């Protein structure tokens, strides 16, 4: 209005047959996309560019191109890698703090020196003093060892040693991060573990594991006097690849849980009646390592599986 500070609507058409087109993708930079999707890329590093386009549209209502997402992913990975380098640099301080706050603990950090004087992380082992003492004073002389893959930007494998307390429940004992799971890394892990728990060559100790060849050989070399059991679940997982069926499964589990040699032989006779090859397959896996009837009687633990690890 010319005479006052206000306005007046003189004509209003409130029926429309068009809609407003919003496309802000052209003013969005790849750096902004990378910062917004950093957490998504960290969780799923192999996310595709098209999935990133769909994610930006879903979360922010913006239309971006595949090229923008390609540059955004590269930017986000560089940011993540840069922060991880800083994290790895703090490992020495982390290890020193563990030793200060848990006097008597074992922390071993090894690196690979490069020709240009830089060092890269190789492996790390941790076993806390309180945990060692607790295992020695109140746990069964049974340890399960296993490893799993680490997923994400930094690959590698996590090795773990899990004991069993007086209630037969899990008792995490020691852990390590290594680049790859092989005979050499298992020997290194077992050396540190056996020294921490004071079991020497493994006499009086039971170790339960899967059928990883490197681990089996490492146990033979580092703990030759221990009782080495194989996880019955892993034995059956390999068995059922060739011999499927409910009857095979039932007979195998009954044989594995047999508490006397006569009962074990009885179930094995039923298996040989069904298939001589199935019988041979199981006997080649050394039943003394996965059947309860052959376990050492002074271990006070009849565990035939290692899923707890």
TrEMBL record:
Residues of the MULE transposase domain: 142-238
Native species = Lactuca saligna
Write down what this protein is called.
Answer: MULE transposase domain-containing protein
